[in-house]
Amino acid sequence: MRPELQPVHQGNDVDEKYVFPWMGIVANVPTEWDGKRYVGKSGSGLRDDLTNKGFNPVRVHPLWNHRGHSGYAVVEFSNNWDGFAYAIKFEKSFESQHRGKLDYLGSANRGNKLYGWVAKADDFKSSGVIGDYLRKNGDLKSISEIQAEDKRKNDALVSNLAETIEAKSRRLKEIESKCNETSMCLSKVMMQRDEMIQEYNEEIQGMAKNARDQLAKIIKEREKSKLYLEAQRKELELRKKELVEREALNDNQRQELHSLKQMNERAEMEQKRMDESVLKLAEEQKKEKETLREKILGLQTKLDSKQALELEIERLKGATQVMRHMGDGQDVKKKLDEIQESLKEKEEELEDLEALNQALVVKERRANVELQDARKELIDGMKQHSSRALIGVKRMGELDIKRFQEITKKMFVEDADFKAAELCSIWEAHLRDPNWHPFKVVTTENGPKEEIDDKDERLNRLKHEYGEAAYELVTTALLEMNESSSSRGITTELWNYKLERKATVKEGISYIVQKLKVSKAKKR
Asked: Which runs of consecutive H residues, i.e. helices, occur in 305-439?
């Protein structure tokens, strides 16, 4: 008899103590020695077996000790009365096959059969891995205590609902008192909105016209200079060829040719400066677009009154329903007509706001498309840059085999590089597996967010076998893939290596401009 188990009394009266949330114990789980420790069937495998038998467990947790798998597992059921029913069904099923707790404790030859029972007070108070797990993850409660606790919760819920109804009634009165004030403000807001839209449209048209004219002028001058330089280059090559054929070059001719080459080089440098001017102009246009986008966002903020208008319409609809239920008196009918007239006006104003909002959405999407195109061009143009640069292109989600080699060299004396290549290949396949989703959704101040599931069996096995460094290497690649691509593939991204984050388009352009300045200074 194992020291952590004692015989359990039969019977399920309301004062009998159970471990809550409801838990069951599976004993005599087959184990085997793998040379280092005892290993046995996983919790997910046991859970699937119990589910197929109709016990509906939430999870199954194998219990381990210093020798490995202990041969026990704790079955967790849902913490409601359905979970209690499944737990009793689980215990009765094993007892009907003479594999309950008493059968387990009294049997000398158990073979490979599983034994099971519901966790109660004697299991909770026992020593060893079972008692430790139950005391850590549950409490002792009787059925009568749980029923009394449920009753207290229901009474509290009824009380809270009554208070909520009272608060809603008070809030309704407050909203009705603010109706007139809101109606007066709406007309003023609409006038301000019309003035802002007119001013905004005039400014946009002027900016667009100036930008087009300036860019067209610069491009025309650049093409003209380019054609002139090309003609000069061809003329110099032709003269050089003639002089070589004649073999009558003298010092004066060589000096003249050298002078012409220098002039041509200076012209090419001037052409490069013109190219830089074009790049600066593109940057200025980008800044103008950013300014335009900020103005759009500011206008959208001011149009948040659309939501207030929608709430006002819903309130008026509610007031209409209230007035209809108050009777057919003359005053009531007059008040109802006034509310319906106001509701019609609000709905017309809402339609105008919807049209304006759609126009703003279209403009913002166009600006986003242009920004994404610029980002793509930057990525394509910087792929040849070294990863040691401040701003460069990073392959998101790619595993670094050198990091794996550093890990395996600390663990293996021989074949460390082979082990690293094998480990890298295995985890690259895991990362591309669409059926593996080791994430959990957590709620933050900014809304729902996906994080690495610290209970994922595959990742925990990696951490246990190869350490924290391998775990962080794989989880970082997972997060990069999950953020950059919905298909769990490797993508390229503009990256700020100094701050270890995605680089903005502004940072990419600034970096290129700085490189041009440095290159220009070195040539001088």
From this structure: 305-324, 330-382, 401-411, 416-432
